[in-house]
Amino acid sequence: MAVKQSTRRRERRRSTRVDAKLSMRVEGAHEGGPAQVVTESQNISASGIYCTSSHFLPPLSKVMLTIVLPKMPGQKRGQELIKTEGIVVRCEATPGRKPEARYQLACMFADIDPERRERIEEFVAWRNLQALHAALMPARRRTTAGTKAAKKKAVPARKKAAARPARRATTGKRRTTK
User: Fold this and answer.
1) SS3 of 100, please?
2) What is the pLDDT of residue 50?
3) Radius of gyration of the chain (CA)
4) Could you give all domains of the chain from N- to C-terminal order, each with its CATH number?
5) What is the mean pLDDT of each run of 10 residues along the chain (178 residues)?
6) How is residue 96 annotated by DSSP?
7) What long-range pairs does 87-92 form, CB within 8 A, spacing at least 24?
8) The pTM is what?
9) Which residues form the PilZ domain (predicted)?
């Protein structure tokens, strides 16, 4: 009997990644000379970044990456520029796309200092927590709404309260104590 292989792709990356549209610049050489591509990332991890490019950049070529990380809540510093060297891992043509997004470009960070790598890891963790929280919110609302509806059905009708004696009328003047 043949063993059925899983149709799910196995994650090969060591670092967690997150979908994020971050402003960035890629500087490298292509067949027409030096290229400077201003683009937006598709996802990022502590080990690399994925984006679209208007130019073909050959795999295994060195590039300079500049990434704009936004300010995260609870942090004193504002948005931060991460500048590092990268190596093109993959550059594939995307047929039928706009000229500014003709290629899918994957770059691995080559020479990133530990502080900047940690900053990217913090950003990835923060964004993944946001995504998890957003995914759980509709489920919480459904659960809460369902619970409220169940409680309404389970509560028996109240009996009419017995008539209470009328309260004593007051004159509106307050007593003051000395």
Assistant:
1) helix
2) 97
3) 30
4) 17-127 (2.40.10.220)
5) 48 78 92 87 96 92 96 84 96 82 93 93 92 80 57 56 60 58
6) T
7) 87/60, 87/61, 87/62, 87/63, 88/28, 88/57, 88/58, 88/59, 88/60, 88/61, 88/62, 88/63, 89/48, 89/59, 90/59, 91/53, 91/56, 91/57, 91/58, 91/59
8) 0.67
9) 11-125
Q: What is the residue whose two structure tokens read 């991890």? A: 45
Using the Cα atoms of residue 112, residue 114, residue 120 and residue 124 in order, give the sign of their dihedral: positive
Tell me the three-class secondary structure of 137-150, residue by residue. HHHHHHHHHHHHHH
Q: What is the pLDDT of residue 8?
A: 47
Looking at residue 6, its pLDDT comes to 45
Contact 65, 49 (CB under 8 A): yes
Q: What is the per-residue pLDDT for 4?
A: 47
Mapping DSSP to helix (H, G, I), strand (E, B) and coil, where does residue 84 land?
strand
Evaluate whether 50 touches 112 at the Cβ level (below 8 Å).
no
